[in-house]
Design goal:
The structure is a single chain. The protein is of the alpha/beta class. 35% of the residues lie in helices and 18% in strands. It has a domain of 148 residues: Rossmann fold, CATH 3.40.50. α10 links the parallel β8 and β9. α6 crosses α11. The chain is globular, with a radius of gyration of 21 Å.
């Protein structure tokens, strides 16, 4: 689609808009695309775009971080993790605060690299901080199976993988929910299929669309959703058919069902949600860090000094937080939304996203 066509589409959206519309883009990558393109600055201000709980680092509970910090007290443990997790604070400290033991914390860029780390360090217990959504979970499942096949016994997983539908149910069923439409997570849809999110429209009578991640994709989704809201419809569309199929990725879904089962999980700033987290099945219990080390995760909900809890459910945006861009910056984050590259606060800070400023 040409830039002229895009200007036309935005002009049509702005001309047709006759009411305030609040659209949640669940995925942090969508938030990045919207902010990078300055989309909020060219749309009618009555179209309010808010972020959702689609940043895995942002929704990782404090007790999970506490468990990782606790594991460092074990003499033979080596923590392996994606880089963003280093800076997220638990109830008292982050892994970065424990860098006096930095030789026992290793950042990895590919989950499969920890197989080599485990084989190269046979006298150590290699713990991987497995955090993410349905997008990451099949990779972790494949990694667990590969470790079992190779007979690697010193690789253990602290599982914090989340399932998206239960948290969206929580957001949509809240009494203070004022959303009118939703852009569904594209990456999760690639794995789980377009039908995974149809409940948003059918159960909550709300227009919803699965979108790609280019400027044109997101603009088309906003056009579709504004049309649905104006017609008071509960339309649902897969606007990303080149990557998202109705059935999703069958092989990835089979891996998920083979290795994991669902359990209740704690979402930072939101609370405990039934069946919202993946847990290793009993056949793979030897890989479970919680069981191997007898860790107690209490699912405690703490009060943040910032507004991250409200931001990740679309009730507030970063500009409304009194700490934002004052004492809370990417160099000195006070909440998880200012840590990850998919966090709303980091994205607003980087691109100065202007809606509701």
């Amino acid at each position: 689609m040409s830039s002229f066509d895009m200007k036309d589409m935005i002009a049509i959206i702005n001309k047709k808009i006759s009411q305030e519309i609040k659209i949640m883009e669940v995925c942090g990558t969508h938030t990045q695309a919207i902010a990078k393109a300055g989309l909020s600055n060219v749309l009618d201000p009555r179209i309010q775009l808010v972020s959702g709980p689609g940043c895995p680092v942002c929704v990782t509970a404090e007790d999970y971080i506490d468990a990782a910090v606790e594991l460092l007290q074990q003499p033979d443990v080596l923590i392996t993790t994606f880089g963003d997790m280093i800076r997220v604070t638990g109830s008292h400290k982050s892994l970065e605060d424990c860098m006096e033991m930095k030789n026992r914390i290793k950042v990895v860029y590919s989950p499969f690299s920890i197989l080599d780390i485990a084989e190269e360090n046979p006298t150590k217990q290699i713990v991987f901080l497995a955090v993410g959504f349905e997008t990451t979970a099949p990779l972790i499942a494949a990694l667990v199976k590969r470790a079992l096949q190779k007979g690697i016994k010193n690789l253990i997983f602290l599982v914090g993988l989340k399932r998206m539908p239960p948290v969206l149910e929580k957001v949509l069923s809240a009494q203070n929910n004022k959303l009118d439409a939703m852009i569904c997570p594209g990456h999760v849809s690639v794995i789980m299929g377009s039908e995974y999110f149809r409940f948003i429209s059918e159960k909550y009578n709300m227009p919803a669309a699965i979108s790609g991640f280019e400027y044109e994709d997101v603009t088309a989704a906003i056009y579709y959703l504004c049309e649905g809201v104006s017609k008071r419809g509960n339309n649902f569309a897969n606007l990303y058919p080149k990557c998202v199929k109705p059935e999703g990725n069958k092989a990835a879904k089979e891996l998920l069902s083979e290795v994991f089962e669902s359990k209740e999980g704690c979402w930072r700033g939101i609370g405990v949600i039934e069946a919202s987290e993946y847990a290793l099945k009993k056949e793979f219990a030897s890989f479970d860090a919680v069981k191997s080390f007898g860790i107690k995760i209490k699912n405690t909900i703490l009060i943040e000094s910032c507004l991250c809890g409200d931001i990740i459910i679309g009730n507030k945006n970063p500009f409304q937080c009194s700490l934002f861009n004052k004492i809370c910056t990417p160099e000195n984050p006070k909440g998880p939304c200012m840590v990850s590259s998919e966090g709303a606060c980091v994205i607003y800070y980087k691109y100065k996203r202007g809606d509701l400023a």
